[in-house]
Amino acid sequence: MQRTRSRAGISRFIRSRGYVSSDSWCSVFGGGALPHFFSINQPGYKSSDQKPDFVVSLHKHFIYIIILGMCDSMKIAILGGTGSIGEGLALRWAVKHEVFVGSRKLEKAQASTDKYRKILEESGDTCTITGCVNPDAVDRADVVVLSVPYEHVSSTIETIKPYLRDQIIISIVVPMKKNGHFLYAPPESGCAAMEIQGLLPEGVKLVSAFHNVSAKKLADINNKLDMDVFICGDNEEANNVVSDLVKDIPGLNPMIAGPLEVSCMVESITPLLVNLAKFTKKKHLGIKSV
Ligand SMILES: NC(=O)c1ccc[n+]([C@@H]2O[C@H](COP(=O)([O-])OP(=O)(O)OC[C@H]3O[C@@H](n4cnc5c(N)ncnc54)[C@H](OP(=O)(O)O)[C@@H]3O)[C@@H](O)[C@H]2O)c1
Asked: 215 C-alpha to center of ligand 1: Å?
């Protein structure tokens, strides 16, 4: 799957390297700098047309083209992106990727999107983020994150089926039950990922990831993360795309854990982490392999 380039990603990359301010860069981007660059190669072009700042301008064009090649961005739909972990994923990815926050209700998606945009803008980040109903979000995406509670996965997939083509689906779903403490409650197929596989049409590639990441830590963009993310899936290319998306969140380290059925073990770690947090009073635990 190809990564495409977004303006937010380019702008952030440039600012992070301190090349130019985001405003001046946007003016280069939106103000016709590229057309100007190409115009010098046209037959009617005369050297006397040069502006005094031509050399500086040309430099900018070359830097821009080099940077274009370095900034890859994807279109990511987060279904249930209005919820706890959806918020963190949206905030962390929207600075580089084009994020579609999905919901059953457009107004709720838009309210969450406004909130996320404000958080990012207040911290000086630019972002590309849009609120949509779940099917619209899927229709516009290369990668779709299933971020709804296990009980509602099946009904959510029914609503998006007509819009599934060859997207990569990421399941972060953990079936759990509470009985004073938390227990893993897998379906007959062994785990959420294996069940979801059976619900998806052919051609869609399912990857399982992010189960052991705390929503709270992810959503606090000032919090420095330092944990592993286990990735399970049967399609190597899709696993690699998800691995790159994990890397795009600073402090998260992707680890391929095996084919999709390994997700049954990875999912079962989450209730353990929640119990550990409760009984040891250490909040929002994650996994780090040493
Ligand atoms: N929270 C964590 O720390 C964490 C960590 C790892 C994995 N996970 C997994 O990530 C998934 C989301 O967890 P979460 O804590 O973010 O859940 P959540 O906040 O309780 O819910 C997420 C979203 O699911 C949607 N939803 C609720 N009821 C629904 C229904 N009946 N039908 C369709 N959609 C419905 C809602 O979106 P709309 O109302 O906008 O449609 C809601 O905002 C779960 O499968 C969980 O196991 C969570």
From this structure: 11
